[in-house]
Design brief:
Layout: H1 9-26, H2 33-38, E1 45-50, E2 53-59, E3 68-73, E4 76-83, E5 102-109, E6 120-124, E7 127-133
Antiparallel strand pairs: 1-2, 2-7, 3-4, 4-5, 6-7
Length: 148
């Protein structure tokens, strides 16, 4: 059985651009320690919904729990903190520095159905997990239909 695939003239260009981006990233010059310290970074975040709760999971490798802050203000959830540089290595001994240190801040709009007073956060193995329950009145419910 043969599957027909419509030819897209731009698909070849997309693959070329992807390959070029990988090549450029691989051959990029190493950042100096100052560059790495000055570079703002943003941790990767997954957001999903399960059992009527919004879950936010942020990757924070190398960040200590005491350096992480979570706040909610006006339906905006903000995760901020800092990854500190290792002070045991002399700056002159670095050959390559790719891990970024410094402060980070990510903000996410919450729906009006979020129960801001019951937000919980936990930190384990470099993962920050924030759970935002939804208000009970926001939960779906079945409406009985009566004969008119």
């Amino acid at each position: 059985m043969t599957t027909l695939v419509r030819w897209n003239p731009f698909r070849t260009q997309d693959r070329f651009n992807d390959a070029l981006s990988l090549w450029n990233a691989w051959n990029a010059p190493a950042r100096s320690l100052e560059d790495a310290r000055a570079y703002e970074w943003a941790p990767a975040v997954d957001i999903f919904e399960r059992n009527g709760e919004i879950h936010l999971v942020a990757e924070l490798p190398g960040v200590e729990q005491k350096d992480v802050n979570v706040s909610v203000e006006h339906n905006v959830l903000t995760v901020s903190g800092e990854r500190r540089a290792e002070e045991s290595v002399d700056e002159n001994n670095y050959h390559r520095c790719e891990r970024v240190q410094g402060a980070f801040r990510r903000s996410f709009a919450l729906p009006n159905t979020a129960d801001r007073d019951k937000v919980q956060a936990s930190f384990k193995n470099g993962l920050l997990t924030v759970v935002v329950p939804q208000k009970p009145e926001a939960q779906p419910r079945s409406i009985e239909v009566h004969a008119a």
